[in-house]
């Protein structure tokens, strides 16, 4: 199966660098890397994870709070020092574009590759990026500033080739892509070998949703169906529910309740308040609501299956 991996570089914290790095994740889709949020320390974490800067094709920023975006200009500068020439697309709410556009102009001489900033909607869901492998749609979130999450949907994969049949009929390598896309094979003596005999059915497409800083938004449940993995912030324990609502965050139990409403295969929680010396308190509260919950942690790599 083609790669669809999630690398946690920083899982976020109300006071970053005390226990956790600020928010940053890498989604590896079929060998191409996509960065979600870019807090301080993202470059260092990319190096530790042995992930190449040059393979990052696009960056998705959720909002303008520093723990989600202060690493961006440094990362772009380092990419330029490493002689990057390929353009990069940066998506985020309009405030992100307003903030970074003057910086890019100021550093125009230092960044020697095109950086395209794209303002995305934060009050409705919209498809903002699509290629042959996957598409990205926005998820409206409720925070103290304009904020949106992102959903990554793999397009329906092509069927898998049956190697035994390919070898039996001595089908040349150049014909395999056509067979995957539905072509039959015609032997030298005129026999037609149906496409279905040469392939296994395609795997179900995978999907990942990233819901960063947000109050509990059950109205988003229709946008989060059929997920392989849901990431949802879980800043506070149940005892701090009132405070969480005041500052635009969720409790671990509320993150789990979103999973109950949307039924992903697995829930990943992160963005823990630094007041908790042991994140397992939040894990336990979430698992009481949705058992298939795991904690985000720096260095964690998940293969979406």
In CATH, what is the homologous superfamily of the largest domain?
A: Ribonuclease Z/Hydroxyacylglutathione hydrolase-like
Mean pLDDT: 93
Overall body shape: globular
* Strand order within the widest beta sheet: 6-5-4-3-2-1-18
DSSP E strands, number = 18
**What gyration radius follows from the Cα positions, in whole Å?**
22 Å
Query: In percent terms, what proportion of residues is strand?
Result: 25-35%
CATH topology category name of the largest domain: Metallo-beta-lactamase, Chain A
Please write the string of helix (H) and strand (E) elements.
EEEHEHHEHEEEEEHHEEHEEEHHEHEE
Largest sheet: 7 strands, mixed
Question: Would you identify the CATH architecture of the largest domain?
Answer: 4-Layer Sandwich
Return the CATH class of the largest domain: Alpha Beta
When the domains are counted, the total is 2
Can you lay out the helices and strands and say which pair or pack?
Elements: E1 4-10, E2 24-29, E3 32-36, H1 42-48, E4 56-60, H2 66-69, H3 72-81, E5 88-92, H4 94-106, E6 115-119, E7 127-130, E8 134-140, E9 148-154, E10 160-161, H5 163-168, H6 176-180, E11 185-186, E12 192-193, H7 195-198, E13 199-200, E14 207-211, E15 229-233, H8 241-246, H9 252-262, E16 266-270, H10 280-287, E17 293-295, E18 301-303
Parallel strand pairs: 3-4, 4-5, 5-6, 14-15, 15-16, 16-17
Antiparallel strand pairs: 1-2, 1-18, 2-3, 7-8, 8-9, 9-14, 10-13, 11-12
Helix pairs in contact: 9-10
Distinctive features:
Metallo-beta-lactamase, Chain A; seven-stranded mixed sheet; 26% strand; 10 helices; 2 domains; 305 residues; globular; alpha/beta
């Amino acid at each position: 199966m083609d790669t669809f991996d999630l690398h946690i570089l920083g899982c976020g914290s109300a006071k970053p660098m005390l226990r956790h790095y600020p928010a940053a994740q890498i989604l590896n889709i079929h060998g191409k890397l996509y960065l979600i949020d870019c807090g301080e320390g993202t470059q260092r974490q990319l190096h530790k994870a042995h992930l190449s800067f040059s393979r990052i094709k696009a960056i998705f920023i959720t909002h303008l709070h520093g723990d989600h975006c202060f690493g961006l200009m440094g990362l772009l500068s380092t990419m330029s020092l490493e002689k990057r020439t390929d353009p990069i697309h940066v998506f985020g709410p309009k405030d992100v574009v307003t903030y970074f556009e003057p910086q890019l102009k100021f550093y125009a001489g230092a960044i020697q590759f095109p950086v395209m900033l794209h303002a995305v909607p934060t009050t409705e869901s919209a498809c903002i990026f699509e290629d042959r492998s996957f598409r990205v749609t926005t998820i409206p979130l409720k925070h103290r500033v304009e904020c949106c999450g992102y959903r990554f949907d793999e397009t329906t994969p092509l069927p898998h080739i049956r190697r035994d049949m390919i070898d039996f009929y001595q089908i040349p390598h150049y014909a395999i892509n056509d067979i995957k896309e539905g072509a039959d094979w015609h032997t030298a003596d005129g026999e037609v070998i149906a496409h279905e005999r040469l392939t296994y059915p395609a795997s179900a497409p995978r999907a990942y949703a990233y819901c960063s800083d947000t109050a509990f938004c059950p109205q988003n449940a229709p946008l989060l169906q059929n997920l392989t993995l849901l990431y949802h912030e879980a800043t506070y324990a149940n005892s701090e529910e009132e405070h969480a609502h005041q500052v635009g965050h969720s409790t671990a139990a509320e993150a789990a309740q979103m999973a109950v409403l949307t039924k992903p295969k697995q829930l990943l929680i992160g963005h823990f308040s630094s007041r908790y010396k042991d994140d397992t308190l939040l894990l336990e509260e979430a698992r009481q609501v949705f058992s298939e919950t795991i904690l985000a942690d720096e260095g964690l790599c998940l293969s979406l299956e």
